[in-house]
Amino acid sequence: MSAGAGLELALDEDFHVHSTFSDGESSLAQNVQAARERALRTLCLVDHVRQDTEWLPEFTAAVAPFRQQPGPWVLAGVEAKILDRSGRLDLPPGLDGIDLVLIADHQFPGEDGPVHPTQAREAIGHGEMTAAEAIERLCEATANALDATDRRRVLAHLFSVLPKMGLDEAMVPEPLLAELARRVALAGAMVEINEKWSCPSPRTVAAMARAGVTVVAGSDSHHSRDVGVYRSVRLTAGAGVGA
């Protein structure tokens, strides 16, 4: 990747597709069929989990037949939120049959557990923590979460929680961003450009790419019509995110 050249990103892949196993509207079969129709090369079927999720065996068993069929290379994934500053993930025990864990910043990772973004925003407004401290804690928790599982990891919609807290991704200091990218590269994790949330920004993607992190595309689709369909992802990839 060179300055002004844009990011070379595989758009025939989708690493973030939800189904009726969690909050999606389409079945696994419908999602796979949509991926076939769009000639996708890779498809990761992903659903939200919590520590008490009990349906993973059924999920992986349902995904298994698609691995042997013609069409995209099918992976099984789970999406888990970061719980606190230490990087704990909202993951159930036992991940047999799971290829990828998508690490998500659905809420602000507080000292003792997840904090709703509105509450975090109010804490900043009341002077209980500064914007800089909030950003530093989020980056720390995200980096720590990379060590919370031995499965291959993907940072899903990185920094999507910041606008919900009244903050901007551009406020992340360059040294902090570079350190996070270093940690992601060291962990061998990937970073997703997320279609639904239009994040991370070209600046963040560039920092990840400079560190040698693999960047992938994810629709975050909840209906099969959106599988592998990219608009904001294309804009980010073509935004001249070179070093």
Can you describe what's shown?
- By secondary structure, this protein is an alpha/beta fold.
- Helices cover about 35% and strands about 20% of the residues.
- The chain has 8 helices and 9 strands.
- The chain has helices spanning about 30-35, 55-65, 115-125, 130-145, 160-165, 175-185, 200-210, 230-235, and strands spanning about 15, 40-50, 75-80, 100-105, 110, 115, 150-155, 190-195, 215-220.
- The strands form 2 sheets. Strands 1-2-3-4-7-8-9 form a 7-stranded parallel β-sheet.
- β8 (about 190-195), α7 (about 200-210) and β9 (about 215-220) form a beta-alpha-beta unit.
- α4 runs parallel beside α6 and α6 (about 175-185) packs across α7.
- The longest helix is centred in the middle third of the chain and has 15 residues, at about 130-145.
- The N and C termini lie close together (about 10 Å).
- Mean pLDDT is about 95; it is low at about 1-5.
Write the layout of secondary structure elements.
Elements: E1 13-17, H1 28-37, E2 42-48, H2 56-67, E3 73-81, E4 100-104, E5 108-109, E6 114-115, H3 117-125, H4 131-145, E7 152-156, H5 161-164, H6 174-187, E8 190-194, H7 202-210, E9 214-218, H8 232-237
Parallel strand pairs: 1-2, 2-3, 3-4, 4-7, 7-8, 8-9
Antiparallel strand pairs: 5-6
Helix pairs in contact: 4-6, 6-7
Report on the biggest sheet.
7 strands, parallel
Number of helices: 8
Mean pLDDT: 95
Q: Strand order across the biggest sheet?
A: 1-2-3-4-7-8-9
Percent helix: 25-40%
- Work out the radius of gyration: 17 Å
Q: pLDDT below 50 for ≥5 consecutive residues: which ranges?
A: 1-5
Shape: globular
SS-derived structural category: alpha/beta
Gap between N and C termini: 8 Å
SSE pattern, N- to C-terminal: EHEHEEEEHHEHHEHEH
Strand content: 15-25%
Q: How many strand elements?
A: 9
